[in-house]
Write a structure and sequence with these properties.
There is one protein chain. This protein is of the alpha+beta class. Among the domains are: 115-205; 213-323, Tick-borne Encephalitis virus Glycoprotein, domain 1. It has 6 helices and 8 strands; from the N terminus they run H-H-H-H-H-E-E-E-E-E-E-E-E-H. It has helices spanning 2-13, 18-24, 53-154, 159-205, 213-222, 320-323, and strands at 225-232, 238-241, 244-252, 257-264, 267-275, 280-282, 291-299, 302-310. Strands 1-8-7-6 form a 4-stranded antiparallel β-sheet. Strands 2-3-4-5 form a 4-stranded antiparallel β-sheet, with no helix packed on it. The termini are far apart.
Length: 327
């Protein structure tokens, strides 16, 4: 019975298949001895192919390069926008500077006109002082007349004495009133002359600008001023018009501005960064009003335009009408 149990256990464990395994084993391989331990060989799993991790690194490097290029482009665009903004601010600052210079010249012109009329105003001040003095005298004489009347009444003077005193006082008051009326008339006349002079100055300041030769000829026919053309073809070039010498210092074709130096009254003065078709006013000794300089053509190191002066101020210099007869 023990043998049966052993055989059964051998069958379960596969020990009875030794003959079969021996026959199935390849030739040349010795069969295991009976009762010897059996070894089971397990084949290792096939190697797993390498994953795509090696391709991730170049892809990350490419993404970083793209991001770097985008950042560089953004920095360049921001810098360009910043430069444009600075350029616009600089242009606005130059424009404000030119407007301030123009305002200063306008103030100088008005001041000159006021100086021209100051002599007339001086006479007016004298007449006003005289009127005040006459008014004070009238008041004093009125007070004296009233005092005399009161004294006459107090002394019970005769009616004839009272009438005489009253007539004398009325005559004096009438004479002073006449003088005061004449002074007031003179004041009104002076005021009217001053207003007319100021109106003429305002008309000259708001005059038209000629941009071509034909427009300049038309302007010369319409206004009571003389116009003289000039042309400077290089830096440091000079041209003399009457008693004024014009010298070109520099031009800026990008901003349409120029700088010139003017010589008059034995001195040089500069007009910096003036715009094309912008009037430049200046005063010359002996002129009844301001002279005007306008540049209506501007090139690289060259300008052309005209200068206007009061009628007959440059008597020996041919103006635009005399220089080209028949225009």
């Amino acid at each position: 019975m023990a043998d049966k149990d052993r055989e059964a256990s051998h069958a379960i464990l596969g020990l009875n298949d030794s003959d079969t395994r021996r026959s199935a084993s390849p030739e040349g391989t010795p069969a295991p001895a009976p009762g010897a331990p059996q070894y089971v060989y397990v084949q290792a799993p096939p190697p797993v192919p390498a994953s795509g991790g090696g391709k991730v690194l170049p892809w990350l490097v490419g993404v970083l390069l793209v991001i770097s290029v985008i950042n560089l482009v953004l920095v360049i665009m921001s810098r360009s926008q910043y430069s444009d903004a600075l350029s616009k601010q600089a242009d606005q600052l130059n424009l404000l500077t030119r407007r301030m210079d123009s305002g200063d010249e306008l103030y100088a012109k008005l001041r000159g006109q006021f100086q021209v009329t100051s002599e007339r105003l001086g006479l007016t001040q004298q007449e006003l002082s005289r009127a005040r003095s006459l008014a004070a005298d009238i008041q004093k004489q009125q007070q004296a007349a009233v005092s005399q009347l009161n004294d006459a009444i107090a002394k019970k003077a005769s009616a004839e004495d009272v009438n005489k005193v009253q007539a004398d006082a009325s005559a004096k008051i009438g004479g002073l009133s006449t003088d005061l009326a004449g002074t007031r008339k003179d004041l009104e006349s002076t005021k009217s002359e001053f207003a007319n002079a100021l109106s003429g100055t305002k008309g000259e300041l708001s005059g038209a600008i000629a941009r071509t030769h034909d427009e300049l000829v038309a302007l010369a026919h319409k206004t009571d001023r003389d116009y003289f053309e000039f042309s400077l073809s290089r830096k440091r070039a000079q041209q003399k018009l009457g008693t004024v010498t014009i010298e070109l210092l520099k031009t800026d074709t990008k901003r349409n501005t120029f700088t010139v130096s003017l010589n008059f009254d034995d001195k040089w003065t500069q007009r910096k960064d003036k715009a094309i078709n912008e009037p430049v006013y200046f005063y010359v000794q002996g002129a009844a009003s301001a002279l005007e300089l306008v540049v209506n053509k501007l090139g690289k190191d060259s300008i052309a335009g005209y200068m206007s002066a009061p009628k007959g101020f440059f008597a020996n210099t041919p103006n635009v009408l005399a220089a080209r007869p028949g225009t």
